[in-house]
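Morning run. Coffee first, then this:
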Amino acid sequence: MPKLTLPVRLALLVAGTMLPLIVFAVGIVFHNYQRDRQAATQRVLETARSIRLLLDAEMQRMTGGLQVLALTNSLRNSEFENFRRVAAGFIDQYGKDGVVLVADRAGRQAFSSLTKDTASLPPRNNLEMLEKVFTTRQPQYSNLFFGAVKQRLIITVEVPVMRDGEVLYDISFSPPIEVFQTIIEKQRLNQDWTISIFDSDGVNLARVPNPQATIGQRASPSLLAEMFRSGEATLPTVSLEGVALITGFTRSRVTGWTVAAGIAENSLVAPLWRSLAITSVIGGVLLMVGLGFAVRMATTIARGEMLHDLLIEELNHRVKNTLAILQSIATQTFRSASRAERDKFEGRLGALAEAHNLLSTDKWQGSDLQDVVSRVLRPYLLNTSERVRMFGPRVPLSPRLALVLSMLLHEMATNAAKYGALSNDTGTVTLDWEILEEGPGPKLRMIWTEAGGPEVTAPVQRGFGSRLIERSARDQLGGEATVDFLPHGVVYTVTSSLETGE
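And here it is:
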């Protein structure tokens, strides 16, 4: 085998050192994709649960209103002209498309909010639901059906009217379908989401996207079969439009209806390919720079034997520095699973020397503490806004303080979602902050208090998150941080010297 020249040996040395590191970085990208996918699976189920709670609350409000109507003397005494005024007040809450009907057990309509001429009205066409009300004496919720009066698809809430211990009438309310459409449209996070409300037969009664084309259709086969097998689950599905989704669904115990929420698979795959492309390009650039530098240094070494040892030492030193930089970038960036930190990774690899300035000035310049908190906690405020409470004055922050505080808040929120108050359906988080006018300058104190989560036990060893919070508060905020593992919930207390500009 011919002896390799010095430039070739150095080039192979650089390639052999950097290529494994690049492969390692690619492996971390795939690992983070898998973790993002798991997080998305949990997120779709939490979104479906949140919408189900809103739906149940709305249906219970409707039912309560109907039960109040059922107790009025005018209705129980069949004084329908007097009852019409009372019913109008209830209908006004939902708009002109809401209809109240009163029928006997045979389905004959004794009252309609649409007309006084009940004799011309057809009998009720969902007699099975009517019979359930008379038999069970309990409120009932229909599936989607074609209304004989409205002449379109409707759902009804049915409540018995009692007199002397017997069911006298069935009072029925068909709300505008737009009520349910509004609920899911307000909860849709972005265009990558598909959200549906299904009746107990698996038929869409509200949906985004494409409500006009899909209301009245059954769920896609991949989802419908699982809905009839269990009351709650997450699974990969294909939407009615043919889009691959990660879907979570949960069934309401109040109505028997099912809420499903899905996020497009493509929204997770696209960032994966972007991260792989950036990692590959930057890794290739660094590799070419290293190879070019190795060849150049080797050529210089060949010119003078006396400088040979010195230049080789310098070459090794610079290559090690380059590898150390890349190692640091990979370690810092890929320890987190959020997309915001992958964006930081792209910025760092794009311009190593300017990364920190770019993040500080472009994203955090002139930030207010309220804006920083809202930005970090946005994923948790979307679906559980009532469980995260914030109190404190407006506090302008310098770019550096905004960056550090956002990292600390993200760590606290992530820990709460994984292990603490936001890991179940009942926990709450309270974030208070205040300005302390003491000492040579003002200080900011923030207190993160968790309650209602799983029972807390102090860890045997402090994790990276706790060390990050404590060291960042001490070294970068000029303050301190404490973590108290109380039985009812974790409490973080962070103090920081207050800077408003740099």
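Residues 305-327, 342-364 have pLDDT under 50 and may be disordered. Good start to the day.
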